[in-house]
């Protein structure tokens, strides 16, 4: 026997009452806070969850306080200047971070969503607000901010350390050499927060006798910095024992091999003798794996001077060729590291041709201007940020009538 189906038009009052009870319980004990307020913010309804979070009783809030009065001082200002105007203009605001002041005075971080339900006949009606406890989120944000600040501080200390170490390899200013216009420039790679391996030095070995040295170690970082310091002071010590550039570089090679640093060096060392009276300025150049310097004069186009020799720190013994050149008034010799010619833009290198054009264009300027303009040209080619360290030393013999 088939039972008659229930009449769908008949309402089961017991089931309806159960549904209403469930809905009321869901509202009152939801995992988030609910409150309703009038258009002026007066609270007219609040659920038990929000009361439990804040420690208030219903009688403390309903009809007695406005929502803005539950906020911290900064939150009340924000409510009046931004929250309420946006709510009445747009009809809703979402995910606003505020602090509720609880009954015991503590502040509860919350995220708030509000919707303005308007009455079409009598104007603005009720504001329905959902409140989410953001304590864990706020703690996470604060920890994230603290971690970021610690990282920035550590980065700042690392950058300062890098600059301090690098400055110990780079003289604060080149010395004054009688009868010579001397300038130098150094630009670290990128943001300058990592110690590079480029260095230069100019120092006197005897009266009228000077050493010009410029080098580049493979790699960066603390280990490269240690090798750079070793090389700089080894060269200075060796230059006091011998005037032959090739012997100075041979001594440096021995020191690097004994250090067993598993890094190679390129170094150019030049002995500069200023001469007296009409005697010409003489340069004796030795290149240990380094690109030779560029020489140019008032009428002589730029050209490399010197012969590349073997890398340093690779072979137990090295023989580095020497080249002696005489410089006339107006002649310029430019020493540089590979950060100049190997400056990259995409797959294109700055190269020797651009280097020579840049030098030829500034040949009539003083040494400082030549060095500065060359750095500018290389940086401009790389959109303002060098991919490698740049070190430059410019030696110019001034014109006698200059």
Describe it.
The protein is an alpha+beta fold and 402 residues long. It has two domains: 16-133, Beta-Lactamase; 155-396, PPM-type phosphatase domain (Phosphatase 2c, domain 1, 4-Layer Sandwich). 36% of the residues lie in helices and 28% in strands. The chain has ten helices and 17 strands. It has helices at 13-28, 48-54, 58-61, 73-90, 135-169, 222-239, 245-259, 338-341, 351-361, 367-381; strands spanning 33-38, 43-46, 92-101, 107-119, 123-133, 181-187, 198-206, 209-217, 265-273, 281-288, 294-296, 303-304, 322-327, 332-336, 344-345, 348-349, 390-396. The strands form four sheets. Strands 2-1-5-4-3 form a five-stranded antiparallel β-sheet, sandwiched between helices. The protein has a five-stranded antiparallel β-sheet with strand order 6-17-14-11-12. It has a five-stranded antiparallel β-sheet with strand order 7-8-9-10-13, covered by helices on one side. The protein starts with 12 loop residues before the first helix and ends in a 6-residue tail after the last strand.
Reconstruct the topology from this structure.
Blueprint: H1 13-28, E1 33-38, E2 43-46, H2 48-54, H3 58-61, H4 73-90, E3 92-101, E4 107-119, E5 123-133, H5 135-169, E6 181-187, E7 198-206, E8 209-217, H6 222-239, H7 245-259, E9 265-273, E10 281-288, E11 294-296, E12 303-304, E13 322-327, E14 332-336, H8 338-341, E15 344-345, E16 348-349, H9 351-361, H10 367-381, E17 390-396
Antiparallel strand pairs: 1-2, 1-5, 3-4, 4-5, 6-17, 7-8, 8-9, 9-10, 10-13, 11-12, 11-14, 14-17, 15-16
Helix pairs in contact: 5-6, 6-7
